[in-house]
Write a structure and sequence with these properties.
Length: 226
């Protein structure tokens, strides 16, 4: 009788244990099912919706000269680089200062251009990741980083917030891996993944406003610093 009673007491514990093990297994399955960037692009509707919500053209930041001075016969430019929010041109989401030899400054970004099949409304979209800033007398490798490589830009955090954190990390850390695979690019309707560098001869009293259009072109508009 005692043995039978012990078995009955253990039965609910065994059932609960099995249930928890099953939940743990199922909890891992979504991440296993879309463990690669390719699977994310092919299967994740939330990601596709986020890409569809990208705007056709927007301001993505600006640069302005804080100081220009000559040291030992060389001109040095100190500039402030600001990245602005997607829906609010006045909201700052990233701000950094750089001092660079010379006055011709390069701003380097990674562009991902999606085709009209990937995007639900049939229009092309592009997103970007700021990489680095450097001067004429520097190599790109010597440039100063703007965004941390492989991390999600704050500008897109609201668009991608419905995506699981694991999936967001997979997307931003692996998207460049597809750049040299024409078959995969065509399969996931990505027209191009490439780097671009915009440069200007910076002057005091002006603001260089960077914009990106739906085709992925980044360009500066020069406006007075009033």
């Amino acid at each position: 009788m005692a043995k039978g009673y012990k078995k009955l007491r253990l039965l609910p514990l065994l059932i609960i244990g099995a249930g928890l093990a099953g939940m743990a297994y199922l909890g891992r399955e979504p991440y296993k099912a879309v463990a690669t960037i390719q699977e994310l692009l092919a299967e994740n509707k939330t990601l596709k919706q986020a890409i569809s919500n990208l705007s056709g053209e927007s301001q993505i930041g600006y640069a302005k000269v804080i100081a220009q001075e000559t040291r030992d016969g060389e001109l040095y430019t100190t500039l402030k680089f600001v990245e602005t929010a997607r829906d609010d041109k006045l909201e700052t989401i990233l701000e950094k200062k750089f001092t660079i030899v010379g006055d011709v400054i390069h701003f380097d970004a990674l562009i991902v251009k999606f085709g009209n099949k990937m995007v639900m409304d049939g229009r092309t979209r592009a997103l970007y990741l700021w990489r680095r800033v450097y001067g004429e007398q520097m190599t790109p490798q010597e440039g100063y980083p703007i965004e941390e490589p492989g991390t999600e830009p704050k500008r897109y955090s609201d668009l991608f917030k419905a995506l699981a954190i694991k999936h967001r990390e997979t997307f931003w850390s692996n998207i460049w891996d597809l750049a040299n695979d024409p078959e995969k690019l065509a399969q996931y309707d990505i027209e191009a993944i490439y780097g671009t560098a915009v440069y200007s001869k910076l002057r005091n009293g002006l603001i260089y406003v960077f914009k990106i259009n739906s085709t992925g072109q980044v360009y500066p508009e020069v406006v007075p610093d009033i």
